[in-house]
C-alpha cells in the first residue's frame, strides 16, 4: 500500500515538493497579511487575523474547491509543513524567551500564580463535572477518563505564545496589565503541561519512564544553555484541518456552545475572584479573564498526538485511534478556534474602550513612588555619549529597593542627500572613522561593547534600541519610543562635547534641533546632559572615588522634578548628594523644626507654587537629609549677580550639578545674564553650561512633563 501511495503521489504531484511548500507558505503568509491589514483598522490583533485566514483557506471554505485544495493540501508537502512549523515554533518560542521580562515575572510571580491557579482549578472542576454530558452527546465509546482530562486541560489552559503575541500587538507588552497577563499565561500553561503529563504517566510504568526521561533530558539541556528553545511536539499532517461539515448536528453544536461558555464563564468568575482578593481593579480583572481564555499550541497537542513519537509514547494510554473520530476531533478543534477568535475580538474592543485607563500615567518623577518601577530612556548619537548615559543609569540604579528598567536608544541621523550607493553605516574605501564623522559603521559595535562592559561590571541589564531616521523626524521616533515603552524620563545628550583639552565643541547642529523638538513634544519628563566625562561626572558603580552631586533648587515644577530624580541617586553608596536651596533675602523666612534639625521655608507669599515647593522640601528633608543620605545647605541672595557669585563658589566642589529648566520661572535671582546662548537649558542651566562659568562639572537640566491636552512647548527659543 505504501509503494502504491508513493507512486500515486509522484504521478499526481510532479512538482518539487519543497518548491511547492515554499509557494504554499508564501501564499498563506500573503493571505494572513491581507486579513491583518483588513482587520487592523478596527483594532483586531494579528492572531485573530491569522486564525481567520486559516479557516478561510481550510477545507471548510476555499479548499472545498478542488484546484485550491490540490494546491494547498498535498500529501507530498506534508513533511515539509511539519519541518517548517517545527522550526518556526522553535524560533518563535526563542524570541518569546528573549523578550520576556524576567525581573517583572520574578517580582510578581505570587500574584500571577494566584490568578493562574484560580482559573485552572475552577475550569478543571467545571470540565470534570460536565465531561459525562459531553461524552454522552459525542457518543464516546471508551477511554472516557482520558477524554475528560483533555476537556479539563482545554478549558483550563491559557496559550502563552498567543497571549504574548496579542499583548504585543495591542501595545500592552510594557504595561503592568500586559506583563502580568503574559506571566500568568506562562504559569498556567506550564502547569497544564506538567499536570497533563503526570496524569497520563501514572497510567502505566512505560509512560512514567518516558516522563522521567523527558524531565532528565530537559533539565540537562537547560543546564547547558538557559535560553535553549523548549522541545515542541510535531503534529500529524492529517490533524491540521477540520471540516465544519461535522458541526451540523444538534448534540455537536450544544457541546461547542457549552464548552465555550464554560471556558469564558470559568475564567471570568475565577479571575475576578482572584483580582478582588489581590485588590486589582474590576476592568483589569475582566481583561485578564478574556486574555487568559486564549487557546493555542498545547491544546492542539492534546487533540493531535502524532503516532511513533515521544509524545505518543508519553500519552500512550490515550490511544487516540481507539476512540478518536473526525467528528469529536473537529468539535474540540472548533472550540479552540472559536475561543481564540471570540476572546481576541473582545479583548481588542475592551482595550480600545479602556484606552485612557490603560494609558501610561507615570510620566514624571515628582509623584513617582521610589519602590515602583522606574523606566528611563537614555539617548546617544555617538559612542562618546554612551559614557554619560551609562553614568546616569548607574547613579539611578544605586538603591537596592528601587526597580529601574533602563533603555539605551542609539539615534542614527540619515543625511538628506548622499551621492553614493553605500548604506548609511558604510564608509568609502580608504576612509577612517574619527570624532568628526557624521556616521560610522563601528558606532554600533563601540556602543554595544560599552554596554556589555557596563553590564558585566554592574549586573544592570540595559535594553538597546536603534533608531534610523532623518533629522526632521528623529524626534518623533524618540517620543513614540518613549510612549510605547512607558518611559518616565528621557535623557538627551547636549549638542556639545568636551574635548581632551577640556573645552566644549559642537557635535552637530542637528542634535540641538532634535533636542528642542523633543523638549516640545516629549510624552514624559526630560533631561539634557551636558557631559564633561573627561573632568566631570563619572560612573558611580565600580568607581574608586565618590561622586559629589549638587541639586540647585530655586523653586518651581522643574526644580521639584530634579529634586524627585535625586531620590533614586541619593541611595547610591558611591554618591554624596547635597541639596542647595537659593532663597531671596527679601522673602519672609520661617523655620520648620524637626527634632534637632531644621529647614528654612519661604512663606507662601507668591501663590501655590511656594506651598508645593515647601511641601516637597520638607518631605525630602525628613526622609533623606535627617537620615544622612543627603546634605542640605542654603544660599541667601537678592539678585542675579549674587546668584552668579554663589554659583562660582560651588563650581569646583561637585562633579555634577542638577537643576530644573525653569521654563515658567520668573525671578530676579535667576536672571543671570542679558541673553541666553542655549534657551533649551533654561537661564540657570545655560549659565552653568557656558564658558563664563568655567567648571569641570557635568550639568543635568531637567524639565517636568506637564499634563496638557496639546502638549505644547513651554517657552520659545
UniProtKB/TrEMBL annotation:
Swiss-Prot/TrEMBL keywords: Ion transport, Membrane, Potassium, Potassium transport, Transmembrane, Transmembrane helix, Transport
The cross-references to Pfam families, in alphabetical order and at most eight, read: CHX17_2nd, CHX17_C, Na_H_Exchanger
Its annotated compartments are:
Membrane
Q: Which GO terms describe its biological process?
A: potassium ion transport; proton transmembrane transport; regulation of pH
Q: Does the keyword Ribonucleoprotein apply?
A: no
Transmembrane helix keyword on record: yes
Q: Cellular component GO terms, alphabetically?
A: endomembrane system; membrane
Q: Name one GO molecular function term.
A: antiporter activity
Q: Where are the transmembrane segments?
A: 21-39, 79-98, 110-135, 147-168, 180-202, 208-225, 246-264, 306-324, 330-351
Q: Which residues form a coiled coil?
A: none
Q: Where is the Cation/H+ exchanger transmembrane domain?
A: 32-224
- Topology of the protein relative to the lipid bilayer: Multi-pass membrane protein
Q: Which residues form the Cation/H(+) antiporter central domain?
A: 406-539
InterPro entries xrefs: Cation/H_exchanger_TM, CHX17_2nd, CHX17_C, CPA2_transporter, Na+/solute_symporter_sf
Q: Which residues form the Cation/H(+) antiporter C-terminal domain?
A: 549-705
- What is the similarity comment for this entry? Belongs to the monovalent cation:proton antiporter 2 (CPA2) transporter (TC 2.A.37) family. CHX (TC 2.A.37.4) subfamily.
The protein, known as: Cation/H(+) antiporter 2-like isoform X4
Source organism per UniProt: Durio zibethinus
Name of the gene = LOC111284710
Amino acid at each position: 500500500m505504501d509503494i502504491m501511495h508513493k507512486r500515486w503521489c509522484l504521478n499526481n504531484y510532479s512538482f518539487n515538493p519543497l518548491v511547492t511548500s515554499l509557494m504554499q507558505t508564501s501564499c498563506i503568509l500573503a493571505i494572513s497579511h491581507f486579513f491583518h491589514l483588513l482587520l487592523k483598522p478596527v483594532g483586531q490583533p494579528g492572531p485573530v487575523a491569522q486564525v481567520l485566514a486559516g479557516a478561510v483557506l481550510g477545507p471548510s471554505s476555499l479548499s472545498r474547491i478542488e484546484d485550491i485544495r490540490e494546491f494547498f493540501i498535498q500529501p507530498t508537502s506534508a513533511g515539509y509543513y511539519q519541518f517548517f512549523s517545527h522550526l518556526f515554533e522553535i524560533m518563535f518560542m526563542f524570541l518569546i524567551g528573549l523578550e520576556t521580562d524576567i525581573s517583572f515575572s520574578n517580582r510578581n510571580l505570587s500574584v500571577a500564580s494566584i490568578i493562574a491557579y484560580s482559573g485552572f482549578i475552577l475550569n478543571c472542576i467545571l470540565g470534570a463535572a460536565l465531561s459525562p454530558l459531553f461524552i454522552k452527546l459525542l457518543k464516546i465509546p471508551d477511554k472516557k477518563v482520558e477524554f475528560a482530562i483533555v476537556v479539563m486541560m482545554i478549558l483550563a489552559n491559557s496559550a502563552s505564545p498567543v497571549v504574548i503575541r496579542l499583548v504585543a500587538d495591542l501595545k500592552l507588552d510594557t504595561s503592568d496589565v500586559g506583563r502580568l497577563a503574559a506571566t500568568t499565561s506562562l504559569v498556567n500553561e506550564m502547569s497544564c503541561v506538567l499536570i497533563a503529563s503526570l496524569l497520563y504517566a501514572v497510567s502505566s510504568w512505560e509512560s512514567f519512564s518516558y516522563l522521567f526521561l523527558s524531565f532528565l533530558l530537559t533539565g540537562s539541556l537547560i543546564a547547558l544553555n538557559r535560553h535553549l528553545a523548549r522541545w515542541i511536539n510535531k503534529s500529524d499532517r492529517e490533524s491540521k484541518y477540520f471540516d465544519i461539515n461535522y458541526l451540523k448536528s444538534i448534540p455537536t453544536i450544544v457541546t461547542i456552545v457549552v464548552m465555550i461558555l464554560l471556558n469564558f464563564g470559568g475564567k471570568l468568575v475565577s479571575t475576578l475572584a482572584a483580582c478582588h482578593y489581590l485588590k486589582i481593579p474590576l476592568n483589569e480583572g475582566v481583561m485578564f479573564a478574556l486574555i487568559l481564555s486564549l487557546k493555542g499550541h498545547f491544546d492542539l497537542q492534546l487533540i493531535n498526538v502524532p503516532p511513533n513519537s515521544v509524545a505518543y509514547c508519553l500519552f500512550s494510554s490515550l490511544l487516540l485511534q481507539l476512540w478518536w473520530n473526525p467528528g469529536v476531533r473537529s468539535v474540540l478543534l472548533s472550540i479552540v478556534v472559536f475561543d481564540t477568535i471570540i476572546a481576541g475580538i473582545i479583548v481588542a474592543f475592551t482595550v480600545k474602550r479602556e484606552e485612557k485607563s490603560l494609558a501610561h500615567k507615570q510620566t514624571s518623577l515628582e509623584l513617582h513612588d521610589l519602590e515602583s518601577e522606574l523606566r528611563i530612556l537614555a539617548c546617544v548619537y555617538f559612542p562618546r555619549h554612551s559614557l554619560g548615559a551609562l553614568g546616569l543609569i548607574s547613579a539611578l540604579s544605586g538603591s537596592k529597593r528601587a526597580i529601574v528598567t533602563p533603555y539605551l536608544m542609539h539615534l542614527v541621523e540619515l543625511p538628506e542627500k548622499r551621492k553614493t550607493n553605500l548604506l548609511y553605516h558604510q564608509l568609502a574605501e580608504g576612509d577612517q572613522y574619527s570624532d568628526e564623522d557624521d556616521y560610522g559603521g563601528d558606532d554600533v559595535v563601540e556602543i554595544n561593547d560599552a554596554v556589555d562592559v557596563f553590564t558585566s561590571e554592574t549586573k544592570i541589564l540595559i535594553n538597546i534600541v536603534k533608531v534610523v531616521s532623518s533629522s526632521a523626524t528623529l524626534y518623533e521616533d524618540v517620543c513614540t519610543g518613549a510612549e510605547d515603552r512607558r518611559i518616565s524620563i528621557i535623557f538627551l545628550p547636549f549638542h556639545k562635547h568636551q574635548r581632551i583639552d577640556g573645552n566644549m565643541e559642537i557635535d552637530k547642529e542637528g542634535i540641538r534641533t532634535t533636542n528642542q523638538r523633543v523638549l516640545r513634544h516629549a510624552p514624559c519628563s526630560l533631561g539634557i546632559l551636558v557631559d564633561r566625562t573627561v573632568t566631570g561626572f563619572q560612573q558611580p558603580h565600580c568607581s574608586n572615588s565618590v561622586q559629589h552631586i549638587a541639586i540647585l533648587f530655586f523653586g518651581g515644577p522643574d526644580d521639584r522634578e530634579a529634586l524627585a530624580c535625586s531620590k533614586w541617586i541619593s541611595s547610591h553608596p558611591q554618591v554624596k548628594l547635597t541639596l542647595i536651596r537659593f532663597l531671596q533675602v527679601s522673602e519672609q523666612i520661617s523655620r520648620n523644626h524637626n527634632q534637632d534639625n531644621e529647614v528654612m521655608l519661604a512663606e507662601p507669599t507668591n501663590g501655590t507654587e511656594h506651598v508645593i515647593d515647601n511641601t516637597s522640601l520638607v518631605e525630602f528633608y525628613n526622609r533623606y537629609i535627617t537620615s544622612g543620605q543627603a546634605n542640605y545647605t542654603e544660599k541667601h541672595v537678592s539678585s542675579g549677580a549674587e546668584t552668579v557669585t554663589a554659583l562660582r563658589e560651588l563650581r569646583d566642589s561637585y562633579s555634577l550639578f542638577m537643576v530644573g529648566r525653569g521654563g515658567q520661572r520668573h525671578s530676579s535671582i535667576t536672571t543671570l545674564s542679558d541673553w541666553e546662548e542655549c534657551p533649551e537649558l533654561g537661564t540657570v542651566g545655560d549659565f552653568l553650561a557656558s564658558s563664563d562659568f568655567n567648571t569641570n562639572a557635568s550639568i543635568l537640566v531637567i524639565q517636568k512633563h506637564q499634563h496638557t491636552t496639546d502638549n505644547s512647548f513651554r517657552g520659545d527659543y
